DNA sequence: TCTCACACCTTTGAAGTGG
DNA sequence: CCACTTCAAAGGTGTGAGA
């Protein structure tokens, strides 16, 4: 065990100063042998070829670990999550950086659309080639230090450990979740940028794609793709890292924001017509499927109507005029239902009803979101391409002038917005990630969410308040990270835990999806990149970094499993749930020890329960973690050693420095949002669904009839 | 339940045109 | 040289058949 740390080569390598060197533990080996499923841990597997060449310092340990895993016959994703329970060893203590205090607030953009999406069923299509998120995940940031540089990123983590099925027009739990896919961090392409830049625009992550394919035929997976399991529930998370260097991602002030309304169930094919219609109505690329238009859908419907009429006429001729009085023939009714599943319950809301973010950081018009929404006035000018400016406000959506249904939706949307606290006003939660272990955040009552409860939960978010988590690493210094470079080819993977984890953001460099960003960061990764590149694992040499898309841009250069392995071998901190800690090692280790002592106490942190009771943060029981070298807890980061969190009376949890005795961040606070998450009753939901079904049926018939009348007088 | 080919659509950028 | 238009390619989308 701990071969990594004992390897002098490693110690002397570019990784020498890396504070987070994972140690393989007996639990890991045992778990691997038992074939425990790793909900969060990255895959460790040999490349298809079976051959792997890694250079110098990193090569040996990587290969050792790799072969060790390979010997077990384990390949992704069959590693035990215990593997992530790495014991970290601080190698160097750094001086904190000077920073100007900031107080970031994050507001979800397009909240109305998200809420409508959520009310209708929370389905998100994933395909082998990857599909964009819809609704697009966009946020607006405020309270940033204008001059400081930030890296903005997001990831998608499991919301629970259940597999779902769509049965009787509703989502039900269908069993235990499949093994977690290797997760990734998606870096906003504009990262890093100053706070002023971030605040001047809507931060859009629409370029991120969702897939169920762990790799393409070549064994790669695009850097922009996040791998999900179909029929599983996921929760996107947004992160703000106050740093301009990806090297420091673990050592900077790190905040995590969760918007409960953005969770979704990944599907490979739509199950719920309501969601289909919602997306058709609001996504310009699906314009051809809209009922109101000249698209294929309309043509098909018209053809069907014509055939239906001819059939009706034939029936009339055969049966006489006995039923002429009935305006609605049963057959027509049936058709109306069957052919127009898309007819929305309350009428398809217009884009403008939802889109208040016409000036997203990226080309937003393609998102098909409303550009002249009610909030458009508050949209500030983007610092990016001007097309964003011209695109949206002026460009009216083709359907923006349609029915009044939009106003209805808008109305409800506003109501919802009223009911919920503005996310900007929500206190920023700052807690120690070590305290946010998996099941800490789950409500006791939801540990094993019964299907019913879960169903209700999925649509019972009357008000959504972002949950935010801030971690302060103690600002480890530059020098410390000097050699902490990420191989260019290793930038695609991340192995995150459940949201449940809410875990300290356990980040693995190789899991980064930089999506073209960080080209400037590449320069700083030279040493390690060069070190790793010689092995020919992939194009990891520094020269390759000239192209962001080939270097930091993503995982294109390395199979994800290999990336993950290399990443793991690099000694990045991995929580018991596979996420990465932004904390100094000792801080985490201390907490880990405490957790271990408490024996799965990780599930029961009162604060975390309060923060987000609806989520299960760790469906997988934690084995008691061993701390092979207890001295590690106090060596490197004395200021953090023994540091923990101070739980305030109102649920606020603040990381406390044991040395200073003061909170690490004055803004640290946690506010319980449990009340805002209180679900509707199932009865209410059912009633609402029933009403919606009726409305939909009626409106569908009406619209169909109207169209048929107008279409063929 | 998933995959694939397909038609339809938007977006993008190069090429062409005119002042 | 600039602004504008045109056009083709790329890419995003749901559908429906088939596995």
UniProtKB/TrEMBL annotation:
Residues 308-457, 665-686 are annotated as: Disordered. This is T-box transcription factor 3a. Keywords: DNA-binding, Nucleus, Transcription, Transcription regulation. GO terms for molecular function: DNA-binding transcription factor activity, RNA polymerase II-specific; RNA polymerase II cis-regulatory region sequence-specific DNA binding. PROSITE patterns: TBOX_1, TBOX_2, TBOX_3. Residues 422-436 have a biased composition (Polar residues). GO terms for biological process: cell fate specification; embryonic heart tube development; positive regulation of DNA-templated transcription. It is found in: Nucleus. Residues 310-320, 366-375, 407-421 have a biased composition (Basic and acidic residues). InterPro entries: p53-like_TF_DNA-bd_sf (IPR008967), T-box_DNA-bd (IPR046360), T-box_sf (IPR036960), TBX2/3_TAD (IPR022582), TBX2_3_RD (IPR048387), TF_T-box (IPR001699), TF_T-box_CS (IPR018186). One of its GO terms (cellular component) is nucleus. It holds the Pfam family TBX2-3_RD. Residues 108-291 form the T-box domain. Signal peptide: none annotated. Residues 356-365 have a biased composition (Acidic residues). Residues 665-678 have a biased composition (Low complexity).
């Amino acid at each position: 065990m701990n071969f990594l740390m004992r390897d002098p080569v490693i110690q002397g390598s570019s990784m020498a100063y890396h504070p987070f060197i994972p140690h393989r533990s007996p639990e890991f080996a045992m778990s691997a042998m038992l074939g425990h499923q790793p909900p969060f841990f990255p895959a460790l597997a040999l490349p298809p070829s079976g051959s792997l060449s890694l250079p110098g310092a990193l090569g040996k340990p990587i290969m050792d670990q790799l072969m060790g895993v390979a010997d077990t016959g384990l390949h992704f994703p069959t590693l035990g999550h215990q593997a992530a329970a790495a014991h970290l060893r601080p190698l160097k203590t750094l001086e904190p950086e000077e920073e100007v205090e900031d107080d970031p607030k994050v507001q979800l953009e397009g909240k109305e659309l998200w809420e409508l999406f959520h009310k209708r069923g929370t389905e998100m299509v994933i395909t082998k080639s990857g599909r964009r998120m819809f609704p697009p995940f966009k946020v607006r940031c405020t309270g940033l230090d204008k001059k400081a540089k930030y890296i903005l990123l997001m990831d998608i983590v499991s919301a629970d450990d259940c597999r779902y099925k769509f049965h009787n027009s509703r989502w039900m739990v269908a069993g235990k979740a499949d093994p977690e896919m290797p997760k990734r961090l998606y870096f906003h392409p504009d990262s890093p940028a100053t706070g002023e830049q971030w605040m001047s625009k809507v931060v859009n992550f629409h370029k991120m794609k969702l897939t169920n394919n762990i790799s393409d035929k070549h064994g790669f997976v695009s850097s922009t793709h996040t791998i999900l399991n179909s029929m599983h529930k996921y929760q996107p998370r947004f992160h703000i890292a106050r740093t301009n260097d990806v090297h420091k991602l673990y050592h900077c002030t790190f905040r995590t924001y969760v918007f409960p309304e953005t969770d979704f169930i990944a599907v490979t094919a739509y199950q719920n017509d309501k969601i289909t219609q919602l997306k058709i109505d609001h996504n310009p690329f699906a314009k051809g499927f809209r009922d109101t238009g000249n698209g294929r859908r309309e043509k098909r419907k018209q053809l069907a109507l014509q055939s239906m009429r001819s059939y009706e006429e034939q029936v009339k001729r055969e049966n006489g005029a006995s039923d002429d009085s009935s305006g609605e023939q049963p057959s027509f009714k049936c058709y109306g239902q069957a052919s127009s599943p898309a007819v929305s319950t309350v009428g398809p809301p217009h884009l403008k009803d939802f889109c208040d973010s016409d000036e997203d950081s990226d080309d937003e018009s393609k998102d098909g979101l409303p550009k002249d929404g009610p909030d458009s006035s508050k949209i500030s000018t983007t610092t990016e391409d001007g097309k964003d400016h011209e695109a949206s406000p002026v460009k009216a959506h083709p359907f923006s002038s349609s029915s009044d249904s939009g106003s209805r939706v808008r109305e409800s949307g506003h109501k919802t917005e009223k009911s919920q606290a503005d996310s900007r006003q929500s206190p920023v939660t700052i807690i120690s990630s070590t305290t946010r272990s998996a099941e800490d955040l789950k409500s006791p009552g939801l540990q094993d969410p019964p299907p019913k409860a879960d169903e209700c939960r999925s649509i019972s978010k009357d008000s959504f308040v972002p949950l935010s988590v801030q971690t302060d690493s103690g600002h480890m210094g530059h020098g410390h990270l000097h050699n902490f470079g990420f191989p260019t080819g290793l930038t695609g993977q991340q192995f995150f835990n459940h949201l449940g984890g809410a875990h300290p953001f356990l980040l693995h460099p190789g899991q980064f999806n930089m999506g073209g960003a960080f080209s400037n960061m590449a320069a700083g990764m030279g040493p390690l990149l060069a070190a790793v590149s010689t092995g020919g694992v992939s194009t990891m040499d520094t020269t390759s970094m000239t192209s962001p898309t080939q270097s930091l841009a993503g995982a294109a250069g390395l199979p994800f499993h290999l990336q993950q392995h290399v990443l793991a071998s690099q000694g990045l901190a991995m929580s018991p749930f596979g996420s990465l800690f932004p904390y100094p090692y000792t801080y985490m280790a201390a907490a880990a020890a405490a957790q271990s002592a408490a024996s799965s106490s990780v599930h029961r942190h009162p604060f975390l329960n309060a923060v987000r009771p609806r989520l299960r943060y760790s469906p997988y029981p934690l084995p008691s973690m061993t701390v092979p070298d207890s001295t590690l807890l106090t060596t490197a980061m004395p200021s953090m050693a023994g540091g923990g969190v101070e739980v305030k009376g109102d649920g606020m949890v603040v990381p406390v420095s044991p040395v200073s005795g003061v909170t690490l961040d004055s803004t640290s606070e946690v506010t319980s949002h449990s009340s805002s998450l209180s679900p509707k009753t199932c009865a209410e939901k059912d009633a609402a669904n029933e009403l919606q079904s009726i409305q939909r049926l009626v409106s569908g018939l009406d619209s169909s009839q109207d169209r048929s009348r107008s279409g063929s007088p």
